Amino acid sequence: MNVLYNEYLAILSFFAIAFLISILILILSYILNPQQGDQEKVSAYECGFNPFDDARATFDVRFYLVAILFLIFDLEISFLFPWSLVLGKLSTFGFWSMIIFLIILTLGFIYEWKKGALEWE
């Protein structure tokens, strides 16, 4: 039982040292760095020139739609990597369940294509 606590003690001491170092760096940054902000520090900066418009302007909903569709299909495709690694060891149930998953994924892609979610104009 004592050996188990010794292993946890090493992990706990690592977290404590990391916490203390991060607090020390945070305190030193406030002590050593002057906190006065001038006009150039608080102004907006975009790629070396003044910004064109307000940063809080509304975006078209198509940006969000494309981002959500990308996330959905990207996460679903990530299920294929572990499946492809163990494909030779899978039973027929594992194979056909992934084929059904891919069919549903393809049908969803066709549906959003027909609905025009991928059209930009």
Automatic annotation (TrEMBL):
Its main location: membrane. Its EC number is 7.1.1.2. Signal peptide: none annotated. One of its GO terms (molecular function) is NADH dehydrogenase (ubiquinone) activity. InterPro entries: NAD(P)H_OxRDtase_bac/plastid, NADH_UbQ/plastoQ_OxRdtase_su3, NDAH_ubi_oxred_su3_sf. It is an enzyme of class 7 (translocase). It is a multi-pass membrane protein. Pfam families: Oxidored_q4. It catalyses: a ubiquinone + NADH + 5 H(+)(in) = a ubiquinol + NAD(+) + 4 H(+)(out). The chain crosses the membrane at residues 12-32, 63-81, 93-111. GO terms for cellular component: mitochondrial membrane; NADH dehydrogenase complex. Keywords: Electron transport, Membrane, Mitochondrion, NAD, Respiratory chain, Translocase, Transmembrane, Transmembrane helix, Transport, Ubiquinone. It is found in: Membrane; Mitochondrion membrane. Gene3D superfamilies: NADH:ubiquinone/plastoquinone oxidoreductase, chain 3 (1.20.58.1610). Core subunit of the mitochondrial membrane respiratory chain NADH dehydrogenase (Complex I) which catalyzes electron transfer from NADH through the respiratory chain, using ubiquinone as an electron acceptor. Essential for the catalytic activity of complex I. Belongs to the complex I subunit 3 family. This is NADH-ubiquinone oxidoreductase chain 3. It comes from Porphyra umbilicalis.
